[in-house]
Structures are given as structure tokens and as C-alpha cells.
Amino acid sequence: MTVKPIAAPSVAQASVQKRIVAYRAQRIAFRTFGWVLLAAILLIALFPVYFMTITAFHPPTLATARVPTLFTTHPTLKAFRDLIHQYPYMTWMRNTVLVSVCSTILSVSFATFAAYSLSRLRYPGRQVFSNAVFLVYLFPSTLLFIPIFIVCKDLHLLDKLPALVAVYLTFSIPFSVYLLKAYFLSIPRELEDAALVDGATRWESMTKIIMPLATPGIAVACIYSFTLAWNEYLYAFTLLSNSNNFTLAPGLTKLIFGDVFLWGMIMAGGLLMSIPLLVLYFAAQRFIVAGLAAGAVKG
Amino acid sequence: MATRTVAARQAVPEPQRAQRVRVNRDTRFAYALLFPTVFLILLLVGFPFLRALWLSFHKKLLGAQDAPWIGLGNYSSLIHDTAFWASVKNTMIFTGGSIACKLLLGLTVALILNEALPLRALWRSIVLLPYAMPTLVSVLVWKWMYNDVGGVFNYLLQKSTIRETPTLWLADPSKAMGAVIAVNVWRGFPFFVITILAGLQAVPQELYDAAKVDGAGVWSRFIKVTLPGITPVLAVVTLFSTILTFNDFSIIWILTRGGPGGATDVLSTLTYKIAIPGLELGKGVAVSVLMLPILVAFIILLNRFMNQREEIA
Questions:
Q1: Is the dihedral of CA B171, B175, B179, B185 positive or negative?
Q2: How close B57 comes to chain A (CA, Å)?
């Protein structure tokens, strides 16, 4: 081994100085670049939402004019009124709320039990069930919608909202199980062991200890199940045909006539459809972010 | 797995029968809790899936009562159909293009938001906005922005005299795919941002400090500390999004219906077109069955990643 020659102190100091300057310059460059990029991305994220809102409040002539108005000086509720008077928009809204709430309640209750079972108890076949649930969660609805359509047709369940609720369980149960399982695993086992030693039954320890602790996780599962049902398009579009049974997603596409789009009403309807989700998201953002992170980061 | 069970059994001391009773009772309880979910999945997914496989071997027309067995007829007619192969290619371009953009954009934004910026929570909320909007609504807004008459993109381009005539974003075969991918990226990148951000926050600060002491610059810290630290998260989020993008139906259906002239037809829209407007239910199902192997491979891979992480955590 040779000993490295030591440079004279003054030279070393100069080089350190130089490196510090270079380092700072690099940092400032990165910072500026970052801010510009962030501004651009925020603009891109916000603009469509802004444009939807502006179009919804336009007087109807402006919404179909050749020149899009990026500001509105005469906001009006005409598009909303037309939508509610000329189309069964409120019925679509009610149907969507009903379907989303029912499928959320059912899926999260079943999923809570299943997730507890898969995360807290050991028994033969557990891993198989766990993997199967995951597989089903990501199973393509494009494959299932045709047989489901045929079965519903044969059983005269087309155009029936309860059938739609049942179909929505195909994705919201596996999704909730998967999400809650991750959440339950993060709750220390010792808490439950203590209760069991004290003579609590499994049922008691599940309902009185684990479930209260898992409230944030259950909330996230509810929000997601609700969102999935609220957004769902393919099944609603194929299984419902009578306009009075529509949910909002197929309802909004009802405002498209071939090449003619009633943009003002579509944007008004879209805005009304977005509001519940936006409120939900921003009220529960902390949970949502944690849920997303737990979902993909921790599994 | 097997060794673990054996070990668990041995861990139960022989005389404590009460404990064994409890284990048995727990097992029964576990199955009881699982029962509704398993029952519903078998009924609502398992049965339709078998029905789908059955259909793909039959010539089932929409509205017809009988469905004669035609063996691999549906599959062979698809394999000789250029529209099928075009949609396979389109699916790959759509999925690959979307994922690459989402990953790049998501990583960049996550890195920016990971810095100690003022009002960081506000910026994060805004970035989450596209994700919080109902898919259908955002797709309709984009369709409106792409419009040739009164659409905002064409208006801005014409106003700034970059172009004289309106660009037909969705009706021009050479632009439609890009336009469709842009919408998918807009909608999906917040998912990448939030998950990658969570991954970034899990990288230990000591590693950065050590790298700094060693004189590593911003770039080399990113390559040597950040990237290895978040690779598992990147893998999971990419696979996840790949599966969901691969299956996506509504974005393309609303924007272009697979058009113009099949330029954006992916496997999911082709399934729908063959089955419902085309009335050939059996053949439509066969399209989806053919895309299944790739999808299941992705799902198994993802599941393996997630289980690994679970064991570590």
C-alpha cells in the first residue's frame, strides 16, 4: 500500500471552496428548475377543472361559440337548470348515491371480516385465499362484463339497480380486503393477545379492539369503494338501458347525440358529479394519502 | 409456509388442551369470517369467468337462444384478423406510452414535493386533483378541450398563430393515440406522485447525510441513494398501473370509440365492439381471454413483490 500524497493546505482549501460554490450553483439550478416545473404541472392539473367550471356557468350560447371564453363575465345557472328540467339528472344522482352507498356498506363489512381473518388468524389455505383475492381485485372487467350481461339478461336483472350493486361487489370487496389486510397487519398483535389472555373471545377482540383501532383504514376502504362505484362506467353502461335507471356516468354520456355535444350541460353535470368526490377527498386527504401509500407501498 | 405451520404446532405444549381447542375454534372462526367474501367472489367472479371461457368456445350471438360449439373457431378467426393484431399493438403502445410518461412525471413531481417547499401541502392537494375527479368527467372535459370548434387547445394554437387550421386531435389517426395517452397520464400521474412520495419519505435521512459528507452532488445522491431506496415502490406502482391501464376501457371509449379507423382500438374496446354492437358475444369474450395470460403474469409478479414487502415490514 502506498500512502497518498497530501496536497498543500492552501490548494486543498481552494478546491473545497470551489466545490462548495459548484454545489450551491447546482442546488440553485435544481431549485429554479423545480419551481418552474412544479408551476407548469400545477397549471396542467388545475386547468381542466377550471375550464369545466367556467363552461358550466357560461350562458349557453357561449358554450358552443367558436371562441372558448376563458373567463366568464355573466355567470349563469342556465345549464344546471336545463339539465335538471330536461333530463332526469336528479334521478341519476339519486341512483348513483344509492348504488354507491349500498355497495360500499356491503363490501366494506364483508371485507372487514375477511381481512381480519386473512391478517390475524393462521389456518391452512390462508395464503391461497389471500392471493386469490388479490387476483380477483385486478381481474379485468372487460372479461367479466359479457358473461355478467348474459346472466343478468337471463335472470331478467338488466336495468335493476340491486344487480348493479351486486356487480360492483366484484371489485370493491377484493379491493377493500386487500387494503384492510395491510391496515390490520400494521396493528400490533400484542394488543389483541392481551385481550385474549384476559378471556375475550376472538369476536370480542375483533369488534372491540381491532376494529376501533382500524377506523382510519376502514374509512379509507369506504372512501375508495364509494369512489369506485361512483365512477364506474362499463357495467352501468351495459347493464342499464332505461334512462330513468341510469347512474350519473352513463347519464352524462346521454347528453351526447352522435357528433353533437351539449357541452354546457355536460360540464354542469360533470361538475355536480365531481363535487361529492372532491369534498370527500379534500376532507379526508390525510387518510387518502395514507391509504394510497399503505396500498402500494406496504401492501 | 409448511415448516411454519409445523413449528406453530410444536410450539403448543402437549398438555394444554385448552389452547388446542382455541386453535381449532380460531380456525373455524377464520373460515366463517371468510365465507361471505369467498361465496360472493365465487358467485360474482368465478361463475361468470367460467361462463366466459365456455362462451369463447361457442358461437353465441346477442339475442340468440342457441349457442353451437365451434371449438377454437372464435380464437382462430381472431388470430387471422388484422384488426385484432392492430389492437394488440395499440394496447402495447397505449399502456407502454402511458406508463413511461406517468412514471417520469410522477417521479419528477414527487422529487420536487419531497423538498421542503413552502405551502407543500397545498401543492400536493392540487396535484391530487386529477385523481379525485370522476374518470368519466375528466375524460369529457378533455374531449371538450380537444374539440375542433371552440376547443381550448385549438383556440390557443390558432390565436398564437402557430397553426392556421384547427388540429383534429382525436380524428387524425396520427395524433389520436397521443391525445388518448395524454388523458390517461393526466388522470393517473397523481397516483404515482403520492406513492413515490411515500417511498421517498421512507428513505433514511442518514444515507443522504452520509452521501453529503462524502461530497456527493444532487445528481449522484439521486442515483446512488434515492433511486435504490425507492426501486421497490417504483416496481409496485408501475406494475399496478400497468395492469389498470391495460384494462382501461372508458377513457378510450369516450374519447375516440377506438377510432379513427381503429387507430386507438385497444383490446378492451375491441371486446366491447365485437360483443355488443357486433352482437358476437363469444368472439368478444375470446379477445379478453387472449389478453388474460399477460395480465395474470403481471398480477402474479405484482403479488410476489407485495408479499416480499409484507414479510420485510
A1: positive
A2: 13
CA distance A198 to chain B (A): 14
In angstroms, the CA A284 to CA A279 distance is 8
Find out whether A79 and A267 touch, Cβ atoms under 8 Å.
yes
pLDDT tens per residue across span B118-167: 888 888 888 888 988 999 999 999 998 888 777 778 777 777 766 667 77
Say how far apart CA B171 and CA A4 lie, in whole Å: 68
Of all residues in chain B, the one with the smallest CA distance to A297 is: B233
**Would you give the distance in Å from CA B293 to the centre of its chain?**
15
- CATH topology for the A78-298 domain: MetI-like fold (1.10.3720)
pLDDT in tens, B239-253: 889 988 998 898 999
| Same domain? B82 vs B126 | yes
Q: Which residues, 6 or more positions from B87, have their beta carbon under 8 angstroms from its beta carbon?
A: B258, B262, B265, B266, B267, B269, B270, B287
Residues of chain A neighbouring B249 (CB-CB closer than 8 A) = 141-142, 233-234
Q: Tell me how close the Cα of A1 comes to any Cα of chain B, in angstroms.
A: 22
Q: Do A138 and B236 touch (CB under 8 A)?
A: no
Per-residue pLDDT reduced to its tens digit, A254-294: 888 777 777 888 889 999 999 999 998 888 887 777 666 55
User: Looking at residue A265, what is its pLDDT?
Assistant: 87
Residue B62 lies in a domain: no
CB-CB under 8 Å, B38 with A129: yes
> CATH code at B247?
1.10.3720.10
Whether B150 and A139 lie within 8 Å, measured CB to CB: no
